[in-house]
Structures are given as C-alpha cells and as structure tokens.
C-alpha cells in the first residue's frame, strides 16, 4: 500500500486551502473584545448577525408608490424592474421581524434593480441608508459580465 | 406591499467559515462589508464607481424618490 503520497497531497491541499482562506480576512473580534467573556459574546453575536444575513425572506411595505417585478437567478440572469423604498417585515439584512443584535426596529428597506437577462444593475439598502449617498448602499453590477468585470459591489449580496 | 425572496450565497459561506474565525465578508461588527483587499473607507468609496451605471439604469432616481427621513 502506498498511502504516503496520498496523505501528502491531502496535507498540501489542506494547507493551500487554509492559506487561501486566511487571505480572505480574519474576524476582528480580538480587536473589539475587552475581556474573555466579551470575546465569547461578540463571537456569538457575529455568528447570529451572519446567519440573519444569509437570506432575505419577507414582505416589503411602503406608503410611497413603488413597483417591483424583478428576479435574478444567482445574480446571473437579472430581468425586470424594481424600485421600492419602504420597510421590510421578515428575516434578512441582519434582523428578523425588527429584532437584531443591535436594535429593535422594523428596518427601512430599499431596492432598485433593473436587468435585461444578460446584464443588469441592483442597489440594496437596509436601515440607515441614504439613496443620495451610495456609500450607504450595496450596489452591484449583475449578469455574467457584471459579476466578473469591475466595479465590484460589496461581498454580501455577491452573488445572490 | 410586495414579496421579497433572496439568497446570499457568499453570506452562507461567510456564516460557516465564521465559526472558524474567518470573516470573508468583512462585516463582523460593522453594518457594511468589504473585500479583503479593501479598507472600509475604500469599500464605501467604491460604491461611487457605480454612479454611471445608476444613471444609465435609473436616470431619474434622485428626483423620483423623496429624501430620507431626518435623523432622530
């Protein structure tokens, strides 16, 4: 039996994967924590925040007129048009029915999206966004060329 | 009123890797994420690179939507 080279290859791949993952960015808990108990609390808070950002499922409500008939499978096939600026009831954006680790408030919610299947553009805002200040939004170019070529949106909804 | 359904695939990986101390979305402790090659300031500024796309897809955006509510 020649197990040595197989184990070496596995170790090499694991080391490569670890190196690649480490290059992606480490958590900032150590810099934020003031005590070991604080570290544990922040760790659990961050995991809950991440879990509540995995999917957005709910209803949007707005007193202002808006329209949305828009879909994009995995950000690859954007089609339709959406323009809604209101509030969101459900899970998503780091909260669930207004409950998040930072506040208790039904979130403001903004989505603008338009696409022609091969190419499109999306903007998404939660809570304290300002539509005039793009730094408070999650903007992304969608469709295959949009996902590959710059500019790149924030990592959260890329792809979604 | 409308229905919203969206799955954030990168956030799924971020959630799982978070248990091992990695933050690939750069969003631990902050509301907006960033890529690993960016600072948070650069990530915010990079959104302005989408200005021309916004103008192409939503030319009347800032005139059709009302201003945000005043800060509390």
Describe the overall structure.
The complex is a heterodimer of chains A (160) and B (72). Chain A is built from four helices and seven strands. Chain A is an alpha+beta fold and 160 residues long. Chain A has one domain. By secondary structure, chain B is mainly alpha-helical. Chain B has a domain of 49 residues. Chain B contains four helices and one strand; from the N terminus they run βαααα. The mean pLDDT of chain B is 85. The chains are: A alpha+beta (160), B mainly alpha (72). The interface between A and B is large, with 70 and 53 residues.
Set out the fold topology.
The complex is a heterodimer of chains A (160) and B (72).
Chain A: H1 4-24, H2 29-32, H3 36-51, E1 55-61, E2 67-71, E3 79-92, E4 95-96, E5 108-116, E6 120-126, E7 138-142, H4 144-148
Antiparallel strand pairs in A: 1-3, 2-3, 3-4, 3-5, 5-6, 6-7
Chain B: E1 2-7, H1 9-18, H2 40-46, H3 51-57, H4 61-64
The radius of gyration over CA of chain A amounts to: 20 Å
Outline of chain A: flat
CA(first)-CA(last) distance of chain A: 46 Å
**Structural classification of chain A:** alpha+beta
Instruction: List the secondary-structure elements of chain B in sequence, H or E.
Output: EHHHH
Using the CA coordinates, give the radius of gyration of chain B: 16 Å
The topology string of helices and strands of chain A comes to HHHEEEEEEEH
What is the helical fraction of chain A, as a range of percent? 25-40%
Which structural category do the helix and sheet elements of chain B fall into?
A: mainly alpha
- Average of pLDDT of chain B: 85
Give the end-to-end Cα distance of chain B, rounded to a whole number of Å: 26 Å
Kindly state the number of beta strands of chain B. Answer: 1
Pick out the low-confidence regions of chain B. Answer: none
Tally of helical runs of chain A: 4
């Amino acid at each position: 039996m020649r197990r040595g080279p197989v184990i070496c290859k596995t170790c090499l791949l694991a080391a490569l994967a670890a190196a690649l993952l480490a290059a992606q960015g480490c958590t900032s808990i150590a810099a934020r924590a003031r005590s070991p108990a604080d570290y544990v609390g922040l760790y659990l808070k961050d995991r809950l925040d991440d879990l509540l950002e995995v999917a957005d499922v709910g209803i949007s409500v707005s007193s202002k007129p808006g329209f949305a008939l828009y879909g994009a499978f995995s950000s690859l096939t954007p089609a339709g048009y959406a323009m809604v600026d209101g509030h969101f009831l459900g899970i998503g954006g780091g909260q669930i029915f207004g409950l998040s680790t930072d506040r208790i408030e039904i979130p403001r919610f903004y989505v603008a999206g338009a696409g022609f299947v091969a190419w499109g553009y999306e903007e998404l805002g939660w809570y304290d966004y300002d539509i005039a200040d793009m730094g408070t939004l999650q903007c992304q170019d969608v469709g295959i060329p949009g996902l590959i070529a710059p500019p790149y949106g924030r990592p959260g909804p890329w792809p979604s | 009123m409308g229905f919203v359904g969206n799955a954030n695939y990168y956030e799924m990986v971020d959630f799982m890797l978070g248990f091992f101390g990695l933050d690939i979305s750069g969003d631990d402790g902050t509301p907006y994420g960033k890529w690993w090659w960016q600072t948070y300031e650069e990530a915010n500024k990079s959104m302005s690179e989408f200005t021309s796309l916004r103008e192409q897809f939503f030319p009347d955006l800032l005139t059709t939507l009302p201003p945000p509510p005043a800060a509390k």
